[in-house]
Amino acid sequence: MSSLIQGYVKELEGVKAEIQRNNEKNRKLRSRQRVIEKEIKQYLEVQKQPGLKFKDKNFVLEHATSYTRRKKSEKEQEIKRFLKNSGVTDVDSVYKNIETLRKGEEVQTTKLKIKKNDKKKKY
Which of 36, 54, 98, 118 is 20 to 30 A distant from 11 in Cα terms? Predict the structure, then answer.
């Protein structure tokens, strides 16, 4: 194996490790962000204020509608129920067609797989 490829492999390992560290750090930061935002919202609700100003920022309470995520099986059941109620006779095949349409066009790609070294195998 050439020294250039060895350098790429070492750099790849370093980049992956850095990404992992950043993901862990960001996970903690996002959690802290949610806690702080919750505290600010509670303060505004207790004080019965629509918002507040701090330096060059405005913090305003807005009421918005959000939706919880459904599991894949729940989505499938709901779509099939809807199709059945809409008069579709072959619900399963129509659902499969809908799923293939949602996926988009199939494209062939090449992917680099990285596995732990098995000491018995040699390449």
Answer: 118
If asked whether residues 50 and 88 sit together in one domain, one would say: no
When divided into structural domains, the chain yields a total of 2
**Region label for 116, one of left (φ > 0), alpha (ψ between -120 and 50) or beta (otherwise):** beta
pLDDT, tens only, 77-117 = 999 999 999 998 899 999 999 888 888 888 899 888 888 87
Do 59 and 86 fall within a single domain? no
Our CA angle for 32, 36, 37, nearest 5°, is: 115
- CB distance 53 to 45 below 8 Å: no
Residues 41-69: tens digit of each pLDDT: 999 999 999 899 999 999 999 988 999 99
